[in-house]
Amino acid sequence: MWHCLRGLKLGFALLMLNLPGCRLPPDIASLQTATVRRAESANGGSLYAGAWQLGLSSQSSSINEVARMFAGLPGSSASVYHQQQMESLWRTHEWARGQRVRAWASSEIRDLQGHRALFYPFSGPDYLFAHELFPQAETYILCGLEPAESLPDLRGLSASEIEAGLDTLRTALNSIMNAGYFVTVDMRRDLVASRFRGTLPILLAFLARTGATVDSVDIVRIDGAGNAVLAGAAQGAAPGLMIRFHQGLGGMKRLFYFRQDLSNSGTRPGGPFLTFVSKQGYPPALVKSASYLMHQDSFSTIRNHLVRSTSGLVQDPSGVPWRSLLGSGLSLSLYGNYQGTLGIFSQQQPDLIAAYRSGRYPAQPVDFGFGYLFDPERTSIVVARRTR
After folding, report:
1. Which residues have a Cβ under 8 Å from the Cβ of 46 and sit 6 or more positions away?
2. CA torsion 217→185→129→119, rounded to 10°?
3. What is the domain range of residue 37?
4. Does residue 345 lie in a domain region?
5. Chain centroid to CA 323: how far?
6. Does 239 map to a domain?
7. Smallest Cα–Cα separation from 95: which of 177, 207, 205, 208?
8. pLDDT digits (tens, 9 = 90+) for 264-303
9. Does 24 map to a domain?
């Protein structure tokens, strides 16, 4: 089990964030300085020795306030314009997919929702659909090649720099709010285009928009035994992030994001990353808009893990190919009306088209697009469950 961390209160575990003051414009005054002890592991062994100085603004000291600003929530320190634009994007998502995805998941994958953790490979910063489909999970494991970086000291940013950062954030969110997935090339460009770099601003915005209160953020890495441990403050890209949050009066939840190469050269069977995932109770997996990478032999390790070492799988056709699911011992269910993938991809699956037409897996209709197939009339969802 991952060692629980203790002794950190509401945003005070932000070694790498240094986020005192997030008003617009940043008129930081009356800064207080607090001495906060570094986290200790559950067995009493110190992960870090000593303490650090964390500046705290008397006006706005919580990382949760920064998340609310990114999300453009009413009453946050974001500009009225950012609030209006983010509200418009959120309404678009809710109307096109949000409420429909939640209703489908509650009806069709309630058994998989009961697991305590979710593994979402090739996710990038898409906590949005992880939450929509698996809202009850206590631990979320996301990963991608997109960088995880610390936030700048907001006291050092001008109002125009903050507004430019929020504008870039909205640009990065536009495709997933409208089409339901990130355009990888565009997202990677957007994530380095302002002072709010990397996946963290998007993750924080999604958490706040889905009703979470963000308690802390830490830089973490996976050690050789497959345990997540605190890492030192990062300059530039970090190995991973752990965001602790809660929703309402519920207990603490954790969101992990790791910058992880999932090709065979970056992820090996029994290696630290997949060991960490398995230690969370062999969680079900979500795969969406994964660029058909697991159709290639060079991604056989992660493909085999999803087929053999998860309790279930919810995916679109860009995930594990249908041919790899057949004969796997998994119970398979189909949803939607698959007629082939988008023309920009070459990985057509005639065997999956045949499966839809055969009647062996009676496909249930869905009223929302999913992944690259954002047209509800042509979309496809495959659900696989382990039966033995």
Report:
1. 38, 40
2. -70
3. 5-283
4. no
5. 28
6. yes
7. 177
8. 999 999 999 999 999 999 999 999 999 899 999 999 999 9
9. yes
